[in-house]
Design goal:
single chain, about 190 residues, Glutaredoxin
């Protein structure tokens, strides 16, 4: 049995953003943040993203607005959705552990609250500098094979555990998919 909750996420997922905001309200549980590349996961699983289906996309926009409002989470559907999140997810892996939470808050808020275009490298660079991270070093580091391989490894491991989307929570080898399943994951964790 485990007293930890694994949280699989990608910055590109609006539901991962909502889940992250909910997690921040939890004080009695330990969350292991597991960054993955959602595009790569979908490819491995043979899944088409809802972003490319206009009916699913319309529903997702309405649903995210509803859920965030009900949970008092500031949210704005990003007008540049979807983007390739590869640089951002590699960046999360590449920075020091003590900056990862600030990095995630900064990038989640920039994309899903403030409607920033994070496909624009200059916008990424500005956010990185705001976090007191050297942007030149940041962009060099995310190109390193070791960082690329680490994100591939984490994404592949998620697929092997049958994670197929984000957010996903895993507790005691049980999968809970979706921001609305956080409570179930907490309950499973609390039964230890």
């Amino acid at each position: 049995m485990s007293n930890h909750i694994d949280f699989y996420f990608d910055i590109i997922s609006p539901y991962a953003y909502i889940a992250h905001k909910k997690i921040q309200q939890q004080k009695n549980f330990i969350f292991n943040y597991k960054p993955i590349f959602l595009g790569g996961l979908h490819k491995l699983a043979g899944i088409d993203s809802p972003a490319f289906n206009k009916y699913k996309l319309r529903n997702n926009i309405k649903d995210c607005n509803l859920v965030s409002e009900k949970n008092n989470i500031k949210f704005k559907w990003n007008s540049n959705f979807p983007i390739n999140s590869l640089n951002i997810m590699r960046g999360y892996i590449s920075i020091s552990k003590n900056k990862q939470n600030d990095y995630l808050n900064c990038f989640f808020d920039a994309y899903w609250r403030d409607n920033h275009d994070l496909s624009n490298l200059e916008n990424i660079s500005k956010l990185v500098r705001d976090l007191k991270i050297d942007s030149e070093e940041f962009f060099q580091t995310i190109k390193k094979k070791s960082i690329k391989d680490q994100l591939i490894k984490l994404t592949t491991e998620a697929f092997q555990k049958e994670v197929f989307g984000t957010p996903t929570f895993i507790v005691n080898n049980k999968i809970f998919w979706g921001q609305d399943r956080l409570e179930y994951a907490l309950e499973e964790c609390g039964t230890n």
